Amino acid sequence: MLHHLSLGVADLDRARHFYDAALLELGFVPVWSHEEAAGYGEPGGGDRLALMREPDAAPPGPGFHLALAAPNREAVDRFHAAALAHGGRDNGAPGLRPHYGAHYYAAFVIDPDGHHIEAVINRP
Questions:
Q1: Is the pLDDT of residue 7 over 90?
Q2: Which of 50, 77, 90, 111 is paired with 59 by a 20 to 30 Å CA distance?
Q3: Which of the 8 DSSP states describes residue 100?
Q4: Where would I find the beta strands (DSSP E) of 1-124?
Q5: By three-state DSSP, how is residue 86 classified?
Q6: Across residues 54-59, what is the average pLDDT?
Q7: Residues near 34 by Cβ (< 8 Å), separated by ≥ 6?
């Protein structure tokens, strides 16, 4: 259903430092960039997530978060570690979330602009 999602960020360089590291662990890379924005997706593909420089950017309100697909549980672990090492804040360590499903394995972080980001895999 979704083609891509854009997030407003106050400091594009800071956001790229975070997303370049965290998304790489999920297999996503920068696919385009210029001084006002950057796009991420699968290598050789189009963007699925775009960051747009917006000086007055604010994260969406309560209840919104962005869940990113992980190829395996180890990638969820690496995403979480990279996010914390590159300016993110912990919002839920990697692990099973049985209240979401028997195989739901996820980690939750808050990016440097306050966006709530999840990495998840939902299979054995």
A1: yes
A2: 77
A3: T
A4: 5-9, 29-34, 37-41, 49-53, 66-69, 89-96, 104-110, 116-122
A5: coil
A6: 91
A7: none
Handedness of CA 98, 81, 16, 53 (dihedral sign): positive
Distances (CA, A) of 2 to 16, 69, 90: 22, 14, 27
Q: How many CB atoms lie within 10 A of CB 12?
A: 19
pLDDT tier for residue 2 given thresholds of 50, 70 and 90: confident
Q: Which CATH superfamily is domain 5-122 in?
A: 2,3-Dihydroxybiphenyl 1,2-Dioxygenase, domain 1 (3.10.180.10)
Distance CA 77, CA 91 (A): 13
Model confidence at 121: pLDDT above 90: yes
Widest distance between CA atoms in the chain: 43
94 pLDDT higher than 90: yes
